[in-house]
TrEMBL record, chain A:
<protein>
    <submittedName>
        <fullName>Peptide/nickel transport system substrate-binding protein</fullName>
    </submittedName>
</protein>
<dbReference type="InterPro" id="IPR030678">
    <property type="entry name" value="Peptide/Ni-bd"/>
</dbReference>
<feature type="signal peptide">
    <location>
        <begin position="1"/>
        <end position="22"/>
    </location>
</feature>
<keyword id="KW-0732">Signal</keyword>
<dbReference type="InterPro" id="IPR000914">
    <property type="entry name" value="SBP_5_dom"/>
</dbReference>
<keyword id="KW-0813">Transport</keyword>
<feature type="domain" description="Solute-binding protein family 5">
    <location>
        <begin position="83"/>
        <end position="433"/>
    </location>
</feature>
<comment type="similarity">
    <text>Belongs to the bacterial solute-binding protein 5 family.</text>
</comment>
<keyword id="KW-0175">Coiled coil</keyword>
From TrEMBL, chain B:
<feature type="transmembrane region" description="Helical">
    <location>
        <begin position="166"/>
        <end position="184"/>
    </location>
</feature>
<dbReference type="Pfam" id="PF19300">
    <property type="entry name" value="BPD_transp_1_N"/>
</dbReference>
<keyword id="KW-0813">Transport</keyword>
<feature type="transmembrane region" description="Helical">
    <location>
        <begin position="225"/>
        <end position="251"/>
    </location>
</feature>
<dbReference type="InterPro" id="IPR000515">
    <property type="entry name" value="MetI-like"/>
</dbReference>
<dbReference type="InterPro" id="IPR035906">
    <property type="entry name" value="MetI-like_sf"/>
</dbReference>
<comment type="similarity">
    <text>Belongs to the binding-protein-dependent transport system permease family.</text>
</comment>
<keyword id="KW-0812">Transmembrane</keyword>
<feature type="transmembrane region" description="Helical">
    <location>
        <begin position="141"/>
        <end position="160"/>
    </location>
</feature>
Length: 515, 304
């Protein structure tokens, strides 16, 4: 009986293992990772895309997939500036009017030709429908006036220096008007059609999205025959898929797995900065203990940010004294890559401020929203206690945290990380104008306020950037926000590939090539 | 038949209560708007989104309008996917059923022979080994077992694929992960149930007739020992569904469990409500099925 049972189990295992064939490799342990196919690129994301309605989501990881199917009018290449995509040329005619010329002969995946009417249809939809999640980033557009099949003008309500930033990010891919109007949105969402190098094949929600090469693409011919975006929420599973060659690229690798991946032959990791900057936000009104600039400076000097990057993030971050990091319009690079740490001076400042024996304050932070958020808050509290500040830590779940964040209901300090999908200083600093700071930091610096408001509508690029840079210097001294570090993204890749991650975290499949 | 109708009627208040509890829980645990918009969104943007999702109405009004829609089979739309919640849930059922059935098969393959052997060889080293193993099997958390199986059988030995759904091979590790806990419970139950039966008079009679031991065990004792086992199998259906939440996430298995986990995380209310409703119906039906199987296994049981 016993023998029969074990025999049966063994046979079953062998049969099932036999059936699984194809997709797995039979190499063992430390041998180099192999992948089966040079025509297919498999990318593992932590989440699935949410929709094909480009106007009704604000998820970077979804946009990272969409950029392979759709095109923007222009693309933002960071330091290289704006590059033509669907638009051939553009010009700023006056403060509120921009004229554009489209490339001719561009076709959608269904064969329709791209014209200025498609641009009008796409941009006016998101500019006018306030139920769409991206509406807030496009309602500055008043109208799109079609001049001819390939020419059009965009009119904004107010001077809009950041218009090109808006047009080069999620929500502004150009959609096929005729297809959507005749077939309806439901059909479009089931069978999306764009102008991009890859076209839709199949989407199994929470499993995989498959795209195939668009041989009619107006740009360079697509490099891959097929793209597969897999959704693998569990970090360790994503890492295992990378190690076994199941996927070519895996995003969001936890810092703790980096060494293990790098030690395995055939796979490696690449690190690249993201737009997210982690920071402490401090109340600077007179009623709060942190209202005293000396106290805020002492808090800044008491925290060793570099140590946090080294120990908590295993190096996957960069210290900074500004939220506007390189690659963004208006960045002040003098403040980037450095941080202040001097606990001795912090103690002196506290004594000077009238707190020789320290004081107590409350620090609120989300638990589980950002990489190592709880650990960071705990470490900050420990470092502050070294200089005599007793910190009451309040770590709460994200949605509860967010509720209080909206109600501006925090005590002296809270810990948060902001992204910046606009690649412009305006979004990064807009919480520090006197009006927006009310109830949150109550930061009240007339000079910063004037600089920010002037820059917001300044159409002179150079002067505008200078205004933002000056504001950042004052903010770095005033410290209504104390910046901890900019987070890096860690991506695991198969060594057969050449891949340089982008600051905007997009995956342009054609920028990932075989070595 | 009368019994069936009565049972069906009894499920209505249960389902109503479930809709109310889920409705309230998902609303008191967080605001979906805060999870859908970035940190930098303005108050106006939040308000307008809340209004477009109907979240600015008082709770009782929201609930009754939800119930009203439910009567017409409308579970509302998913915030995340912007599509009909019920069809999202139904689309995932095959994957979850596939995993659930495979796990049950794994549980039966493991527990039936081990449970019987353990009872027949009572108090032997073998029995001790099996009962000890059962405790271990029950104690192992699914996510840990899943990750260990991946590391051992997929990364080190590369026998099975790591994750996803597709070939039969993809099914093996998640089914073992999910089936182990159930197997542990069933092994212990089959053992104790067999022990009880083996001491009864009719077994002694069968032995005194000179029947072979294998016939006594397999034919006479095991069939009678099945009755409590069937109960536990039905009750395990609920555990199974609970287990899929974790197992599907670990193995990136595109089933109902993963959908539910992600929807809860994002407070995608319509999907959570639709998924729990369908799961509730599933659990109620499997309990009913257990009642009916009893009757088949033991004709003495009558439903009046």
């Amino acid at each position: 009986m016993k023998k029969q049972l074990w025999l049966l189990l063994l046979v079953l295992t062998l049969i099932i293992a036999g059936c699984s064939g194809g997709e797995t490799n039979s190499t063992e342990g430390e041998e180099p990772v192999e992948t089966s196919d040079s025509k297919t690129l498999v990318i593992a994301n932590g989440t699935d895309i949410v929709t094909f309605d480009i106007h009704d989501h604000n998820t970077t990881s979804t946009e990272a997939v969409h950029v392979n199917m759709f095109n923007y009018l222009v693309t933002n290449q960071g330091e290289e500036g704006f590059q033509a995509d669907l638009a051939e040329s553009w010009e700023n005619i006056d403060d509120t009017t921009w004229s554009f010329k489209l490339k001719e002969g561009v076709t959608f995946h269904n064969g329709e030709e791209l014209t200025a009417d498609d641009v009008k249809f796409t941009l006016e939809r998101v500019a006018k429908d306030d139920t769409l999640l991206e509406h807030g980033n496009y309602n500055q557009i008043e109208a799109v006036n079609v001049i001819s099949d390939y020419e059009f003008e965009i009119v904004t309500a107010n001077p809009e220096p950041a218009l090109l930033n808006r047009l080069s990010r999620l929500g502004s891919a150009i959609l096929p008007q005729e297809y959507i109007e005749t077939e309806g949105w439901e059909v479009f969402l089931e069978n999306p059609v764009g102008t991009g190098p890859y076209k839709f094949m199949d989407w199994q929600r929470d499993d995989r999205l498959t795209l195939e090469a668009n041989t009619e693409y107006f740009g360079d011919a697509p490099k891959w025959e097929e793209l597969v975006f897999r959704s693998i929420p569990e970090d360790s599973t994503r890492v295992s898929e990378l190690l076994t060659g199941g996927v070519d690229v895996a995003v969001n690798i936890p810092p703790t797995d980096v060494a293990r991946i790098n030690e395995t032959e055939g796979v490696t990791t690449v690190q690249s900065p993201t737009q997210r900057v982690m920071m402490l936000v401090l109340r600077s009104d007179e009623d709060s203990v942190t209202g005293d600039p000396l106290v805020r400076e002492a808090i800044d000097l008491a925290i060793d940010k570099q140590a946090m990057v080294d120990s908590l993030l295993e190096g996957a971050g960069t210290v900074t004294r500004t939220r506007v990091t390189p690659g963004n319009v208006g960045a002040n690079e003098d403040l980037y890559g450095e941080s202040l740490y001097d606990p001795e001076r912090a103690r002196e400042l506290l004594a000077e401020a009238g707190y020789p024996d320290g004081f107590e304050l409350t620090l609120t932070g989300p638990n589980g929203r950002y990489l190592k958020d709880r650990e960071t808050v705990e470490l900050i509290a420990a470092m502050l206690s070294e200089v005599g500040i007793t910190v009451n830590q309040e770590l709460i779940e994200w949605s509860a945290f967010n509720q209080r964040y909206q109600e501006r209901d925090f005590a002296e300090m809270f810990y948060i990380g902001y992204g910046n999908s606009m690649f412009d200083a305006s979004l990064a600093l807009d919480r520090l104008t006197i009006e927006n700071a009310e109830g949150e930091t109550d930061y009240d610096n007339q000079q910063v306020n004037d600089l920010l408001l002037a820059a917001e509508q300044n159409m002179d690029e150079e002067e505008r950037a200078q205004q933002y840079q000056e504001a950042q210097e004052i903010i770095a001294e005033d410290r209504p926000q104390i910046y901890m570090f900019q987070l890096d993204a860690i991506t695991g890749i198969n060594e057969r590939l050449e891949f340089e991650p982008l600051l905007n975290e997009m995956f342009y499949a054609d920028s990932i090539t075989l070595k | 038949m009368k019994y069936l109708v009565q049972s069906m009627i009894k499920t209505i208040p249960v389902l109503l209560l479930i809709t109310l509890i889920v409705f309230l829980l998902i609303r008191v645990t967080g605001d979906p708007v805060s999870l859908m918009l970035p940190e930098t969104a303005t108050e106006e943007e939040r308000d307008s989104l809340r209004e477009s999702m109907g979240l600015n109405e008082p709770l009782p009004i929201q609930y009754f309008s939800y119930l009203g829609d439910l009567m017409t089979g409308d579970f509302g739309d998913s915030f995340r996917y912007n599509t009909d919640a019920l069809s999202l849930v139904l689309e995932r059922l095959p994957a979850t059923f596939e995993l659930a059935i495979a796990s049950m098969v794994v549980a039966i393959i493991i527990s039936v022979p081990l449970g019987i052997l353990s009872a027949v060889k009572r108090n032997s080293f073998f029995d001790l080994f099996i009962t000890g193993g059962a405790v271990l099997g029950k104690a192992m958390p699914n996510f840990w077992l899943g990750i260990m199986l991946i590391l051992f059988l997929s990364v080190t030995f590369q026998i099975f694929p790591v994750s996803g759904r597709g070939t039969l091979g993809h099914l093996v590790l998640p089914a073992i992960t999910l089936g182990t806990g159930i197997a542990a419970e069933m092994t212990r139950l089959i053992r104790s149930s067999m022990l009880e039966i083996l001491e009864q008079d009719f077994i002694r009679t069968a032995r005194s007739k000179g029947l072979r031991e294998s016939i006594i065990v397999n034919k006479h004792a095991f069939r009678n020992a099945l009755i409590p086992v069937v109960t536990i199998m039905a009750l395990q259906t609920a555990t199974l569904v609970g287990g899929t939440l974790i197992t599907e996430t670990v193995f990136a298995w595109p089933g109902l469990g993963q959908l539910l986990v992600q929807s809860v995380n994002l407070r995608d209310m319509a999907v959570v409500q639709a998924a729990t409703f369908i799961i509730a119906i599933f659990v109620i039906l499997s309990n009913l099925l257990a009642d009916l199987i009893y009757r088949f296994l033991d004709p003495r049981i009558k439903y009046e």
